[in-house]
Amino acid sequence: MKKLSRREFIRDSGIALAGGGLALFIAPSIVSSATKYDWTKHEYGYTIEIDRCIGCGMCAKACKAENSVPDTFYRTWVERYSYLKNGEVVVDSPKGAMDGFGSNFKADELDKAFFVPKMCNHCRNPRCVQVCPVGASYITKEGVVLVDKKHCVGCAYCVQACPYGARYIHPKLSTADKCTWCYHRITKGMLPACVLACPRKARKFGDIRDTSSEVYNLVKIHRVQELKPELKTNPRVSYIGLDKEVR
Amino acid sequence: MHEIIGAGYCYPNELHHYWSILIVLYPYITGLIAGAFIISSFYHVFGMKELQPIARFSLISALGFTFCVGLPLLFHLGHPERALNMLFTPHLTSAMAGFGIIYASYGVLLCLEVWLIFRPEIVRYANQTKGVIKLFYSTCLRSYP
Hints:
A: 247 residues; alpha+beta; Alpha-Beta Plaits; 2 domains; elongated; B: 145 residues; mainly alpha
């Protein structure tokens, strides 16, 4: 083995140190540029295909588990609309459909029945944001309606104002709480828990600026409706196959 | 033709009620303030002599109730320690924040009116009392003991 002279040792050590330092300096910036999330480059939308929903309640269960939603409160739930032959429509959502639905009417009494998943509509013109006295409710650049839990005073004005019943006061935090479209997941490129859990793919989530996204194309191809259009809240959640009795 | 019958269904989250007796107390006290202020104004502004005996008392009642009208709302809040956020970071499209500003302005107006109406008493107490009470009334007169 060749013996290194002092001069060679210092030169090689310098090269090794410079190379290592350069790698340490560049590597994080390469990693962060690959994973860096820019909220100005997204605009999210959510589409629900009514005909696909079987009322299994997996979405509600997944949401509870993902977001630690307290008992008897719901960020998402499923409603059942039962149209009877005598002209009545009966709506129910036992435990937000967490355990699915049992049978409620005999087959010969029913005209038709279907399930409607519900959640925060992330309105473009949200009443909850309008009425918040301290500005704790806000819309992100991507169009997601969120609550700043460190600023919320817990007055429940937004809960009163939401026409979709999507908000509640968290019993432990004493602040307003609601569906965030799993913001902690979507900003990492993942899907919301409810979308992932749906076995029939009734729930679709995506970037509506991305012309290749499923949500963009579903809205483009189908006739879609929104809940309570008369309120002009302009929701970001679109329904395919919505019946006029659904409210 | 199908029709939803009765009011048997409400959204699962709406089974919880948040706005109750404390919210009702707020407009009730507001009504007391407005009534007391109007009675006071009948004499002080419109010169109705019949109401002179209670004009000053009703004005001071309005001021007293103005100081406590926010208490039911404060006890209603999930985070009462953040209540002043409504004044520090008001969201001006919110009626609740708007009323915070209106009530603060109304409180200032009432204080000014009480200060002017009760000025003879303030002068008298500033001259006749001693200690902290004298300091308070002297300060109201913008002078020092």
